[in-house]
Amino acid sequence: MARLFALKSVQGSICAAFGFAVVSSISLAPAAQASEPWPAEIQANYRIQFGGIEVGQFTFNSSVHERTYAVSANADISALLGLVRWNGVTRVSGALAGDTPRPAGFSFDFRGSKTGSVRMAFGNGAVKSVDFNPAMPDPPGIVPVTSAHMRGVLDPMSAILSLSRPKDGNPCNQRVSVFDGKARFDLTLSPKGETPLAEAKAGATPEMLSICRIRVLPIAGHVDDEKAQELKRNLGIEVAFRAVPGAGLFVPHRITIPTFAGSAELVAQSFTIRTHREQIALVN
Fold this sequence. Notes:
This protein is mainly beta.
């Protein structure tokens, strides 16, 4: 029963975190120089696990044409013989200013115990409008979101693209400002170390994964209670990046989010990456 309550309480958080990375959603971090062109298309498939048991699937698709981009992601969760069901679909489009994404429109639609949608419009580097359907009134004690909070921010999916082009070439040394329509927060990544992808063959050098800690720092749109303080202190969220030299990228092999009833994990199953030179397929 504890796992049922945990699944119901974290299912939205799982999609949100996996959507940006954290909780960093399907992050792509290039190992190449900033002048490397964005991949024309990326398709990624992940399984979602809770307490070691598969409970759903997460898919990510991105496309870049000239200096515009479009990203979509879909999360399906079904557990306890279908007693817990949830689906979330996220879409965003915008322009690329060098290696910096400039979102124009963002949408998030979800179905489960509750059904609804979020729409955001951007312009001149700021959020211009937010629409919830149905309306979501603020809870008592919420830290108010001001117009200043909505300047210089990215939606969760565009934040993924921003994290994918680290200025110093290190995916574990970054910070990005995010607004998801309700909450304003920062994501910070810091290095933890490396671990082998799998056991190497005799005499071979093992392929290494780069492990980053992810910290979520609430800024506004949240209730500043013990849960928020615990989130600030939480260093257990991690992403393991796998290098794909042929595409000049790091792709997330695994994302881990601890909960009181067990760990939620996003584990890579396959990637298809089409660059301007070749198509690369990875299967785990």
